[in-house]
Structures are given as C-alpha cells and as structure tokens.
UniProtKB/TrEMBL annotation:
SUPFAM superfamilies: PLP-dependent transferases. It comes from the Eukaryota. It comes from Rhamnella rubrinervis. Signal peptide: none annotated. This is Phosphoserine aminotransferase. Transmembrane segments: none annotated.
Amino acid sequence: MAMVTSPHSLLLQNSNRQLLKNPTTKPFNAFPLTSTRTTYTTTPKRISITCAATTHVQDRPPTPAQSQDRVFNFAAGPAILPENVLRKAQSELYDWRGSGMSVMEMSHRGKEFLSIIQKAESDLRALLEIPAEYDVLFLQGGATTQFAAIPLNLCNADDPVDYLVTGSWGDKALKEAQKFSKPKVIWSGKSEKYTKIPAFEALEQNPDAKYLHICANETIHGVEFKNYPTPKNQTGLLIADMSSNFCSKPVDISKFGLIYAGAQKNVGPSGVTIVIIRKDLIGNAREITPVMLDYKIHAENKSLYNTPPCFGIYMCGLVFEDLLEQGGLKEVEKKNQKKAEILYNAIDESKGFYRCPVEKSVRSLMNVPFTLEKSDLEAEFVKEAAKEKMVQLKGHRSVGGMRASIYNAMPLAGVEKLVAFMKDFQARHA
Ligand code: PMP
C-alpha cells in the first residue's frame, strides 16, 4: 500500500481561464471535429496551503492528464464522480466498444445494451454480496418515487407501518406513506434538530406493522446508522433508503427486505434509482398501483419493461467496475473512514470555531454538516473556498451552515485541501 505522507504543501493550480479560439493544444477534444470550437486552457498560478495530515490510506493519483479546470465538488448530489470513470465514458462516448454507436443511441433491447445492464447488475451483486433471493432493479423517478412505491407494493391502505425518522428524508418518506398506508412515527429526532439516532431497545415498534422504514444516511443532517434495528413486526421487514451511503461500505443485505437508492451520490448520474428487493415481497402490489411503480412488472422484465435510463445505468456500471477494482467495499469504507476522520477531527479540534451538531457516534461518513461560531462568516467561507476550487460547501437551505459531502469519489486530497483551507481560514478570522 502506498503511503501518503505530509506535512506537505499542496501546490494548488489556480486557473486563470484564457479563452482561445481554435487552440493548438486540445487536451480533451478526443473527437475529430473540424469545426472551430471554443476551448479553455489555463495558466496555473501557485498558491500554497499547508496540510498537516499523515495518513496511511491509499489515495489514487490523479490521472495523468488531470484537468486544471476540475474542482473538488462537495455537492450532496448530483455529486462528484470518479475521474477515471468520467474519462472512460468520454473515451467510449462516440463509439461504444466498436459498436459504431454511443450508449445513448442504442436500443435498450439490443445485445450491446443488454450486456451493459447485465454486467452492471452482476458487478453490483459482487460488490454488495447480494444473495440470490434478491432482485436488483434499475428504475427511474428517484428515491422520492420509492416513498410511494413501497407502501403501494407492501401493504394495504389501512395497514400500519412504522417509520423511524432521523432527518428530512425520513420525514418526506413518512409524509408520502401517509397517503397510502397508516404510518406511525416510532421515533423522531425533529425536536433535537435531527442530530441523533435512538437506542433501538427503547423503540416501541408496532407488532402489527407491515414494515419498519429507516433512512440509513440523512443527507441533509449528516446522521448515519452504524448498525440497524431489528424489526419486531409481524413480517420482520426492515426497509432502508440508502440513497446517500449506497456502496460506501459493506452491508448485510439479508437484514433488509428492501433497500433503495438514487444513484446520484455514490454510484452514477441522476436518473437511475436502484432497488434491491427480496423476491418473496414481489407480486403484492395493490390494483391501483401504476405500472411504473409495480416491482413485479420491473422484476419480470429485468428492468426493461419500458425504456430505462440507459446511459445512467451504463455510468453506474462503470462506477461498480471501478469500486471492484479498488478492492471492493471494505477498501472503499476504509478510505471513507479516513476522509471523515480528518474532517471531523479538524472540526472538533478547532476550539469551537467550527462545530458539527451531530452526536459523535452517528456522524455520517458521507455528509459532514458544520457551522461557524461566527455565523456571519459562513458566506465568506463558502466564497473563499470556491475561489480555491472547493465548491458546493453551502449547507442545505433548510439548515444553513456548511456541508461537505465526501462521497466515495471525493479523493483524500480533496478533504486534505479542505482541512488545510479551514485551518487557514480560522487563523485569519479567529
Ligand atoms: N433520500 C435521500 C437520503 C436523499 O438524499 C435524497 C436526495 N437528496 C432523496 C431521498 C430524494 O432523492 P431523489 O431526488 O432522487 O428523488
């Protein structure tokens, strides 16, 4: 394992964009287009930020032709994607593997696309060790659509279901379920501004509930389950929205009846929603269930009942391949732990200059919310960070402050640069 050693100076390439017409250097014009195209080149200007972390986690080196125009994107989703995946997609965009077509132009029923979706599924199965008794569905409509699809498929209108609400997304899932079932909130963190997860033993679950629903990682509030409650309902069903920590660590799929996730945080572009569902739960949708929300229809048709989000599925497949190449989810989790550790340490060691409101034991490895003691400096923090090519650090509009989303694809170097910037900002404003 390579060792990344610091202290070191990150020599940041600060770009002054120069607009050139018809340039002689065309770093990314991979296609033989003849028209006059507008391209950017950069004049690097060095600024120096000292970074004091010493770490033993392998960070992948930037690809040789790394663009000076790429930023460290801390967005919550759509979010940063692995650079090598983007480059691979770029190289295959015009002509996918000698087919003479882009993936966007292929029939979803042709042999080329079938090979893409089948490989994506088998790689995801390998990554998450998904047991054979589970189906994997590649759907559309975002996780939000699943908020309704779940009660429509798994219970009747008068059936009780349990919701454990640890943040805004769990709350949104609950509100949608109220239209299609009789959900009960067995615990809500709302009064404590969603900074905690309760002890599971104390939860009063309804023995008649048809399932227990959780949001495994609350993207806005940065609260993440580190282990999972045992459902004490008649069906023994636990259901999890894993949109924002999907494929960020190993998960024992057999603990869940159904897992769902929008792709646009850890595994691809928006437009793909992945559902992993135990096969015996399929086939019980209510009659009124729209065809697009019926798991049976999608399972029987192998996610090809109608036109699926082909290009998005292809991108997810490239990400799955990349995660396998990194050594699988155990390795990915180690990297995520390291990144989160150095960021939370920087916050906790700032003597109150920065604060993370979330209880330490349930802090998310993916979404790190923090505030400034001097809240009037927050806008300045975000602005200055953006100037140094660290973007999308503003917290969600509902909670304010800042949020750094550090998904799988965020390199360690991005977090180190952020931490160095935070220290520098503190030194200038404390
Ligand atoms: N659940 C979680 C945990 C999320 O983070 C999001 C999106 N940010 C959603 C659900 C909603 O996802 P979508 O926008 O794909 O419907």
